[in-house]
Amino acid sequence: MGSVEIQRTTKRIRGGDPVGLGVRLRRYALLADDGVVKVLNLEEGGAFTMSSAEDMLAAL
Question: What is a single cellular component term in the Gene Ontology annotation (predicted)?
């Protein structure tokens, strides 16, 4: 499975491509331990409320 397919299955693809910039992803932060995803914080819209360094440090 390629990276775009992985992005689609985890709902990280953002809208269409109205200006020819290719596939765009939603902002997210991911915490993995030994290849296993432990935390996946997906942002909604233009918000930056769950993917900051502070949020990820708190998840540790």
Answer: cytoplasm
Structure tokens at 41: 């914080």
The amino acid occupying position 13 is: I
CA pair distance 4, 9, nearest whole angstrom = 9
CA distances to 14, 26, 48 from 9, in Å: 12, 13, 22
What one-letter code names the amino acid at 18?
Answer: P
Q: What pLDDT digit, counting tens, does each position of 8-40 carry?
A: 666 565 555 566 666 666 778 889 899 888 998
